Structures are given as C-alpha cells and as structure tokens.
Amino acid sequence: MANQNTLPLYQKVWIKHTFSRTVDSLILFLLLTLLSYRLFSHHHFSFPWFLALLCESWFTFTWITTISTKWTPAKTTTFLDRLFLRIGELPQVDVFVTTADPVLEPPIITINTVLSLLALDYPANKLACYVSDDGCSPITFYALVEAIKFAKLWVPFCKKYNVQVRAPFRYFSEKAKANNSNLPQFKKEWLKMKKEYGQLCSKIQNASQELNTFPLVGEFAVFSKTQPRNHPTIIEVIWENKENLTDGVPHLIYIAREKRPRHPHHYKAGAMNVLTRVSGLMTNAPFILNVDCDMYVNNPKIVQHALCILLDSKGEKEVAFVQCPQRFYDTVKDDAYGNQLVALPMYIGGGFAGLQGIIYAGTNCFHRRKVIYGLSPDDDIQNVKKNYGFTGGKLSQKRRKRLFGALEGFVQSVDDALEEMTFTPNDNLFKFLDLEAARKVASCDYECNTAWGKQVGWLYGSTSEDVLTGLEMHTKGWRSEVCSPDPMAFMGCSPQDNLGQMAQHKRWSSGLFDIFVSSHCPYIGTLFGKLQFRECLAYVWITNWALRSLFEIFYALLPAYCIFTNSSFLPNKEPGMWIPTTLFVTYNVASLTEHLISGLSARTWWNNLRMGRITTMTSCFFGFLDIVFKRFRISDTVFEITKKDQPSSGDENVGRFVFNESPIFVAGTTILFIELIALAISWRGWQNGNDRAYGLGEVFCSAFVVLCYMPFLKGLFGKGKYGIPFCTKLKAIVFAYLVFYACTSIVTN
Ligand SMILES: O=c1ccn([C@@H]2O[C@H](COP(=O)(O)OP(=O)(O)O[C@H]3O[C@H](CO)[C@@H](O)[C@H](O)[C@H]3O)[C@@H](O)[C@H]2O)c(=O)[nH]1
Ligand SMILES: [Mn+2]
C-alpha cells in the first residue's frame, strides 16, 4: 500500500469530449472547404468575394485557436483528507480585497465579502485580511469598523453551526434552509444574528446617506481634507487577533494607498502591489488569496482545497496559482445580457486547464508570494539570490533599490518570502509592527525606478492586468490549475444591465488587445519564453478579441453592401451554396447543444449568441479603437469600474435593453439602419422583379443581423431609458446614409 504521505493531494483527469471534437472538426472542415471554394471560383472574383474570403480566413484562424484550446479539457479533484495527513500545520494565508468607489461598490457588498472571508473554515491566526480602498472613503472604513463588531458574533456562529454561506446578506436573504433549524438554541441565536445584521445594515445605510456630512472626528479624522485622488496613505489596523486565537477573528487591515494627481496609480494592479508590500511587512504569508469586493466565499473550506494543489509534491514545484471559477448569484433570467459566462468557461476554461493552465481572472485566485516576487519554477532559492544580487543573505544596495524599492525592512521580508521562512507563523505578528514603514511602501514614490509593475508584482500597462500577470507567469514556465469544488468556491455579482456589461466587455477587449500588441504578446512568449505552443494559441484566442470586431463588422455589412451594389458574396445559384449553409446550421446546432449539455436553456443560447454579435461589433470595436488611440498617444485607457447592484427582484423590465448617449450605441444603431435599408431595397427589388445579382443568401444574412440587433430595433420605439436617444438615431442615420452613399458611388464610378 502506498504511504499515506506520498499520495498526491489532487488529481487531474482529462475528459474526452468526442461529440464536441467531432462537430468542431466538421466545422473546421467546412470552413476550409469554403475557403478553397472561394479561391478556385475564378468567375466570382470581385470585391465582396475577396472581402468575404478575408473575413472567413480570419474566422478559420480563430476557429483553429478555439479547437486547439478546447481539444483536451481537464478537471481537477482535491483530496482534503490527505492534506491533513501530509502537513502538520496549515500555512498562513494573506487575503486581499480591493474596493475603489463607495457609490459604484456599496460598502455593504464589500463588508459581506470581508465577513465571509473572516469566517473561512481556517485557523483564524493563520489568516489576515487586507482591504484596499482606492476610493479613500470614510464610509467604507466606517462600514468595516462596524463589520468587525458584528464579525465577533458572526464568525463563531458560522463555525458553531457549520453555516455554508458565510456572507450574511445571502445567508439571511436566501430561502437558505437554516440548518439545525429544529434546535431551539439555534433558533434563538439565528434570530439574534439576523437582528444584529439588520442593525449593521441600517447603520451603514444611514452613514452612506450622509456621505457629505459624515463627521470626520476621532478615528475618522484621518479622512479630513482628503480627496479620492489626492491624499496621503491611510493604514488602519481595524482588528488584531492579539491573542493569536485559532477560533477568533482574523486580523483586518484597512489601506488607502497614497494618491496624487500627477502620479499614475495603475488602477487595480497598483492597489494589489501596495497590498503585497504592506502585507509583506506585516504578516508576509507565503500564500495570497485575492478577491474583488463583490465576490463572497460560498465554500468555507476553499482555502484547504486550493492548498491541496499548491502543497502537492508536484504542484509545489510547478503550479504558480490556483484559480477558482467566477460564478454569479441572482442572475438575469436566461442570461439576457450574455454575461454569465457559464458555457464558455466550461468549454474554453476547461480547455485551458488541460493545457499549461487557466488564465488568471483577477479574483478568486490563490497566489504564491514568491512567484509574485518574480521567481521562476526552475530557480532554486540560491540561484534567485544570485540573480537578484543577494550576497550573504543581503541584497546589494543597488539591486535592492532597482527591484523592490529602498526600504530595508521590506527587502528583508522579500528575502524571507523567497526562502518561505514565514511558513511557520510568528507568535505575535504585529509585535514589530512599524506603521511608518507600512505607509512608506504604500506611497506614490515608492515604486519609482523599481521593478514593481514590470518584473515584480501585478504588471502594469493593461486594464486586464490579471491576464497579463498570469501570462507572464506562464511565460516563465509556471503552470496554473482550476479549483472548483462543490459547492462553488465563490459567488459574485455581475452587471445587472447591458450598460455595465458593455462597459466591461470594452475594458476587457481593450485590455486584452493591449497585451496582444505589447512585448508580452503570447507569440513572443512562445518564441523566447516557456509558454507552450497550444497555451499560446489559447492566449491568442483570448487576447485578439478586439480585433475580431473589425472582421465581424465587415462581414455583417457585406450582405448590405451586395444589396446596395447589386453584387453577391455567396454562390447563390450554384451547388457550392451548400457549404456556407451547412456551416451556418452546424455551427449553431453545435453551440446550442453545448448550452443544453451545460444545463442551460435554448433561450440562454440565443441570448449569448445575439449578445456576442452585439458586443463584439460595438463594445469590442471601441475597445479596439481605445488601443489604437493609446498606441498613437492620443488618449490613454482607463479602468471603468462596473456598478455592483443588488438585483431588484420582481422588476418586469429586468432583461430589457437600456440606452444612453454613448457612441457605442451610435455604432450599433448605424449597423441596424444599414441592414434595414438593405432589406427595404431588396424588398423593392423583389417586387419590381429586377435582374438581381444577389440572392436569398444575402437577404437572409441581412435579416439575421437585424434579428441579432432586435434589442436595438425595439429601442428605436422605446421610451425613456429603454429608447435610443434622438441624437443617437440622428447620428446613426447620417452614418448609415454615408455608408450607403459610399457603397453605391464606388460602384457607379
Ligand atoms: O482603480 C481601481 C479600479 C478597480 N479596482 C478594483 O478592481 C476590482 C474589479 O473591478 P470591477 O469593476 O468589478 O471589474 P470586473 O469587470 O467585474 O472585473 C474583472 O476584470 C478585471 C480586469 O479588467 C479584473 O481585475 C477583475 O478581477 C475581474 O473580476 C474591484 O474590486 C475594484 O474595486 C481597484 O481596486 N482600483
Ligand atoms: Mn467585478
């Protein structure tokens, strides 16, 4: 029998999706057939024919990257029982939470996340929770101060009754069948807890309403004379687990890093780096769990599950980070805005997992501190020390400044982290706490002329800092794993309307494309680094999302162009027409099947398909433009924070499209108008029985685009926020006419 101590702590199995593989290959075959048909049909050669060839070549290339990513999906299972046999003592974990705006991210959501983290089923003396507040808001701070009082009741309650959902707003709102509900003692405590939570909510609610009149006295005095973008560092230890109790409440530290108008603050990546340094000085745990303010813990044992992977004898040497899936609660029915990301992660995410590893998604992720500090998998510590310029345990003065900044105490903590010295906890973590030093590492100047954001920490330069940082780790040769135990590890909120969803897609597509055109481009990672080839293709798939918009827009306008100019891009009257027809049918049946297999409705499939077309042609197109402007130094990209709403249940308008004056909607409305004009012209042509070069194919394609843009069509007639603003319609009509005019005049000239 194998020694219990040598058994692996997790297992990875590769799944065979024979059906999926067959259908995907068939689609590829059809795409290639279509391309060759186009190349060999000399009699068809014309502008639309070549444009179609160009777009379809792109789609084929994208499809190759898709198939390659999906081909060998994998799943991991963790063995908790073996973890306890293997290690005597659980390691320390530092938990990072980021919040940035008390209005878009209501403090009540943030404190629920924090409460669920403090109540993790993990020894309290091995956890420390650091909250970064980029909004520098006294209300957020107040909410945390109040939350910790509640935590002292909540944490023991959760542990005593083994509560699963430890975010109180979910626990009390949910039809959550209270466990042990028969016990009178439980009933009593449950009621008390509910009452206490209610009081906590109303306190925070009241404070939020008095945003401008909130008294900045006592411990809040530090917030006087601060502005969100202009203030010194504020670090407050809200709670310290002084007695080092395993069943107490973990440390809670509030950090608002210094912000000055002239200093770029690098958004979330900047916040994460400050959290890394401040925690390095305080607890310096070897593992870091990072969650966004809106992601609460849904599985209180998740840290142990992740540790199974990180501490496994193989995982320890190879795995840089463990990513848990992002799932959302109270989602809009049938995923009306196509943002629940259920089917996609299942196929694409599973595929990534079967390669070098899943991308880092910015939240719900466990990191190794030493990897964050730039360690490569094949670097042994002595080597690193040589490379970094450590001599006799000390970094040479010059290199130390260049890499980690000038603070002696912090460099010492890096040295310890690289050696994993902190694996066994100090008896009193805060004994030597030097707040002055902590403020220094959180200041604007600290990173000047250092490697932070370049080789060390979260990398700067993209609004998808998460994917960039993960890609760099993969390029160094690290792997990553997905950890998705049952129940789901974390749950969060997703945008509750299409505005949030479209802004999010714009940020992602531009951030990802920014990576593609930077020196971190996946191709470079494969050529000069250790990024595996298929992992590279998977990253290419994800990072050129914005580029897809161009081809999709051209392709969507192609049928209209043909109708305007009486030409064709499809072999309408020839037997060759079966190729695009079969392709269209097969592709859609395949994606519908994938949705149904994932347990989703047909309506969800349609919504995803439709929203995919809309966001790619609008949000992602603007994401693309953002990067073009950035590269030509016309304007820089900004991280627009998504609004975190608590869904209003029973609202009959949930799922409806809302509009504003954003240029994104001008683009969408223009596309709709162009297709409508095309349909009208074809209708007239049909009635007059004119001699037409285009056929049913082009008309069908045009109609299909209109069908995808149905929310816009409804928006033309909608009222209030559900209607497209008049000036947007006007601009769109002008643009549509210009396109029409340009098309027809090219041909007549
Ligand atoms: O200047 C900033 C801006 C944002 N954030 C935080 O970043 C997180 C993510 O922001 P959010 O608006 O919720 O963006 P999402 O689109 O929901 O985030 C996804 O995409 C981001 C990258 O674009 C990742 O950083 C996130 O982890 C990932 O969940 C939130 O906790 C914010 O508080 C900051 O700390 N500082
Ligand atoms: Mn979010």
TrEMBL record:
Chain sites annotated for binding Mn(2+): K268, D292
Record-given protein name: Cellulose synthase-like protein H1
CC per GO annotation: endomembrane system
Subcellular location: Endomembrane system
Name of a matching Pfam family: Cellulose_synt
Membrane-topology descriptor: Multi-pass membrane protein
UniProt GO molecular function: glycosyltransferase activity
GO biological process assignments: cell wall organization
Entry keywords, A to Z: Cell wall biogenesis/degradation, Glycosyltransferase, Membrane, Transferase, Transmembrane, Transmembrane helix
Residues the entry annotates as binding UDP-alpha-D-glucose: E105, D134
Transmembrane segments: 21-40, 46-65, 664-681, 693-712, 732-748
Active site annotation, chain numbering: D134, D466
InterPro entries: Cellulose_synth, Nucleotide-diphossugar_trans
Entry annotated with the keyword Transmembrane helix: yes
Signal peptide: none
Primary location: membrane
